[in-house]
């Protein structure tokens, strides 16, 4: 299922990989950019079927399900540019980027800005521009990534970054976790009517084998408990979990994320 932007008829396509990953392909029917290619073979198949030339790879962090296909791709396309976080062990990176670096994708006439989002991993970055964000494993639809390497405070600060973008900004994350995230979110906010409607929509999408992504900022403000730390139901849930009152935002987030880990 394709999502088409308004710029130069660019198409953004999700390629399912493994059990629940999406590899995002941006193309203009000639050249293409690939985001987080964990599996090279599904990318090769798409390139061949659509007669596309791979120009650039964008990587958000070092986990193998996001990087495992890079080696085979650059062997087949040796002149491919590979952008990734500077402080990382990811092989084959040709352009190491940090906060506010610009990524010029001349082949598809786009420029992305880099934002550092530590928490899930210490090297995690995202790419944003033209009304879209490739958020890797930081923000999911109705959820967020686990805190593996950073601190809960870092992860919360990274998630708070998304409040800086317009409501219609599209978020392309890399896992189809939406329904599982909704189930947890409903235990936190059982009276959230928008969340209940969102579940019904997501069930229809998945029953037809359509992705639930991209999502957008406005939607996440209404259904994602990790972006709703000021909700009375979220606060009450965290207070019940911890047995404490007057929790600050970091404490609320930490309790909520740990509850999701054990859900």
TrEMBL record:
<dbReference type="GO" id="GO:0019243">
    <property type="term" value="P:methylglyoxal catabolic process to D-lactate via S-lactoyl-glutathione"/>
</dbReference>
<feature type="binding site">
    <location>
        <position position="137"/>
    </location>
    <ligand>
        <name>Zn(2+) 2</name>
    </ligand>
</feature>
<dbReference type="Pfam" id="PF16123">
    <property type="entry name" value="HAGH_C"/>
</dbReference>
<feature type="binding site">
    <location>
        <position position="61"/>
    </location>
    <ligand>
        <name>Zn(2+) 1</name>
    </ligand>
</feature>
<comment type="pathway">
    <text>Secondary metabolite metabolism; methylglyoxal degradation; (R)-lactate from methylglyoxal: step 2/2.</text>
</comment>
<dbReference type="InterPro" id="IPR050110">
    <property type="entry name" value="Glyoxalase_II_hydrolase"/>
</dbReference>
<dbReference type="GO" id="GO:0046872">
    <property type="term" value="F:metal ion binding"/>
</dbReference>
<dbReference type="GO" id="GO:0004416">
    <property type="term" value="F:hydroxyacylglutathione hydrolase activity"/>
</dbReference>
<dbReference type="InterPro" id="IPR001279">
    <property type="entry name" value="Metallo-B-lactamas"/>
</dbReference>
<dbReference type="Pfam" id="PF00753">
    <property type="entry name" value="Lactamase_B"/>
</dbReference>
<feature type="binding site">
    <location>
        <position position="137"/>
    </location>
    <ligand>
        <name>Zn(2+) 1</name>
    </ligand>
</feature>
<dbReference type="InterPro" id="IPR035680">
    <property type="entry name" value="Clx_II_MBL"/>
</dbReference>
<feature type="domain" description="Metallo-beta-lactamase">
    <location>
        <begin position="20"/>
        <end position="175"/>
    </location>
</feature>
<dbReference type="InterPro" id="IPR032282">
    <property type="entry name" value="HAGH_C"/>
</dbReference>
<comment type="similarity">
    <text>Belongs to the metallo-beta-lactamase superfamily. Glyoxalase II family.</text>
</comment>
<keyword id="KW-0479">Metal-binding</keyword>
<feature type="binding site">
    <location>
        <position position="65"/>
    </location>
    <ligand>
        <name>Zn(2+) 2</name>
    </ligand>
</feature>
<feature type="binding site">
    <location>
        <position position="66"/>
    </location>
    <ligand>
        <name>Zn(2+) 2</name>
    </ligand>
</feature>
<protein>
    <recommendedName>
        <fullName>Hydroxyacylglutathione hydrolase</fullName>
        <ecNumber>3.1.2.6</ecNumber>
    </recommendedName>
</protein>
<feature type="binding site">
    <location>
        <position position="63"/>
    </location>
    <ligand>
        <name>Zn(2+) 1</name>
    </ligand>
</feature>
<feature type="binding site">
    <location>
        <position position="120"/>
    </location>
    <ligand>
        <name>Zn(2+) 1</name>
    </ligand>
</feature>
<dbReference type="InterPro" id="IPR036866">
    <property type="entry name" value="RibonucZ/Hydroxyglut_hydro"/>
</dbReference>
<keyword id="KW-0862">Zinc</keyword>
<comment type="subunit">
    <text>Monomer.</text>
</comment>
<comment type="function">
    <text>Thiolesterase that catalyzes the hydrolysis of S-D-lactoyl-glutathione to form glutathione and D-lactic acid.</text>
</comment>
<dbReference type="InterPro" id="IPR017782">
    <property type="entry name" value="Hydroxyacylglutathione_Hdrlase"/>
</dbReference>
<keyword id="KW-0378">Hydrolase</keyword>
<feature type="binding site">
    <location>
        <position position="175"/>
    </location>
    <ligand>
        <name>Zn(2+) 2</name>
    </ligand>
</feature>
């Amino acid at each position: 299922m394709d999502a088409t932007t308004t710029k130069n008829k660019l198409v953004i396509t999700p390629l399912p990989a493994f059990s629940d990953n999406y590899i995002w392909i941006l193309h203009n029917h000639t050249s293409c950019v690939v985001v987080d290619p964990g599996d090279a073979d599904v990318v090769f198949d798409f390139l061949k079927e659509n007669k596309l030339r791979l120009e650039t790879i964008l990587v958000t962090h070092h986990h193998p399900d996001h990087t495992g296909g890079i080696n085979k791709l650059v062997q087949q396309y040796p002149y491919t540019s590979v952008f990734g976080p500077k402080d990382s062990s990811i092989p084959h990176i040709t352009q190491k980027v940090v906060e506010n670096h610009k990524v010029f994708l001349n082949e598809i006439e786009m420029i992305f800005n880099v934002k550092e989002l530590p928490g899930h991993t210490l090297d995690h970055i995202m790419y944003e521009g033209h009304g879209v964000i490739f958020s890797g494993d930081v923000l999911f639809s109705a959820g967020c990534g686990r805190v593996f390497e950073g601190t809960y405070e870092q992860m919360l600060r990274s998630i708070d970054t998304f409040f800086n973008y317009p409501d219609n900004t599209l978020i392309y994350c890399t896992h189809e976790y939406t329904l599982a995230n909704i189930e947890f979110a409903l235990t936190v906010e059982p009276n959230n009517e928008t969340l209940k409607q969102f579940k019904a929509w997501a069930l229809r999408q998945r029953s037809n084998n359509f992705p639930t992504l991209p999502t957008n900022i406005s939607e996440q403000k209404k259904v994602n408990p990790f972006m709703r730390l000021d909700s009375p139901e979220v606060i009450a849930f965290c207070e019940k979990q911890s047995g404490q009152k007057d929790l600050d935002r970091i404490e609320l987030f930490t309790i909520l994320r740990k509850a999701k880990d054990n859900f």
